[in-house]
Structures are given as structure tokens and as C-alpha cells.
Amino acid sequence: MNDGGQRRYGPLGKALVIIPTYNEAENIGPIVSRVRAAVPEADILIADDNSPDGTGKLADELAAEDGQVQVLHRKGKEGLGAAYLAGFRWGLEHGYGVLVEMDADGSHQPEELPRLLTGLKNADLVLGSRWMPGGRIVNWPKNREFLSRGASTYSRLLLGVPIRDVTGGFRAFRAETLEGLGLAAVSSQGYCFQIDLARRAIEAGFTVVEVPITFVEREVGDSKMSKDIVVEALWKVTAWGVESRANRLLGRKPS
Predict the structure, then answer these.
(1) Which of 1, 155, 202, 232 is 20 to 30 Å apart from 55, CA to CA?
(2) Structure pTM?
(3) Contact at 8 Å (CB) between 123 and 204?
(4) How many C-alpha atoms does 122 have within 13 Å on its Cβ side?
(5) Strand order, beta sheet including 69-73
(6) 17 strand-pairing partners
């Protein structure tokens, strides 16, 4: 919990980098190689949603060649949030002390992973931030930037969370943080999933810090962003904001 910076944090333990995939055959090999080079001591879990392009088969081949790569085969495309939740459960069951969220498409730079892990030495959750000093984006169209900045600003103001990049998906959690977030009640996806975990961490009193990252638009493959994901985020954030304000007015603790 957040105790004004006086808490003494224990050792981090072994890190697991969770990489959800759906049709990322062109990206999975290079991204795994970069992660292994950036943090050789970390393990990797590829959570594949039965990709029709053969990503799961390629992941199995990578795992056969490298004992620090594991594959979690899922039945079908169920969304980013569900893939991460499955990866979190797998990592917690196998005793990892740190669990990392990272995209497969190269938009999250593996070379910046050490910065997140260093920040976690004195925090419960570290967010890679595009919208803080030192953070930046590369090759993003203006409409995507407007959408992402707007979603973060809307969520920050409505939910009262002091996070600049609340929708970002490059994150490192301590295991005990995830265990304290009530993951069994999380059902959101996409932008909304990231917002949900961030607000839960703040409401639970965990120490959340941001570190600057460079976010690079994918060069190959298709973005998984959709109108449904945006609508879900807008609806749920509004509902959470109304509930949060009502709780404060009535003196109730967050549900």
C-alpha cells in the first residue's frame, strides 16, 4: 500500500514477460529475440488466441529452442484483457515475482524493459508512459494520438487517478499487486482493461509510478483496435466515474 514513500519493498523475484498474440506471425520471432537480449534473466509467456496465421506454431518452435520461452494456447480470440488475465494466472501459479504486459507488434520497445523493472524496485506497479516528459510516439497518425490522449485525459479527470497515460499497455506489476486487484471481477478489454487495472491499483492504495517510453507504430500486421473497444472504454469509464463520485459523496469505500 501507499504509505508516503516509507514502505520497504522486498526483492522483485523472477520476471515473466507476457506477450498476447493473435495473427502476429511476422512479429513474434523478432520481439522474443529482443526481449531475451534486453532482459536475459526474464522468462517469456506467449499467450496465443489460436491465431489462424500460425503464430501459435511459431511460438512452439521458439519454446522448443529456448527453455525461457513458454506458450499458453487459448481456444480462440477472446480479447486482450482475457489473454492477460490468463497470463497473470499462469504466472502467479508458477511463482513469478514480477509480471509484465507487453505488445507483440514492436510498439513497446523491449530495450526499455530494464527501466520499468528498475522503477518497480520502489513501487507496486510501473506504467510505461507516452504522455509524460521524456515519453514520445513515433509514426502515429494524428487521429490515433488524439484518441489516446483524449482517453487518458477523460479517464484521469473522471476517475480521479493521477496517471498521465492511463490507457498504456506496457506495464510491470509485482505479484502481490496483482493478487490485491480483484482480478476475478475484471471483464473489460482493450483500452478499458488497462484503465480498469490502473484505477483498481490506485483505489487499493498501491504505489503507481510512470516512466517515459517511446511508443512506435507497428510496421507489419494489423492493429487490433476497433470501434467496439473504444465504445466499451467510454461507457465503462463513465459508469466507474459516476460510481466513484457517488461513493465519495456517501462516504462509501470502492466496491
Answers:
(1) 232
(2) 0.87
(3) no
(4) 8
(5) 69-73, 43-48, 15-21, 98-101, 171-174, 125-129, 208-212
(6) 44, 100
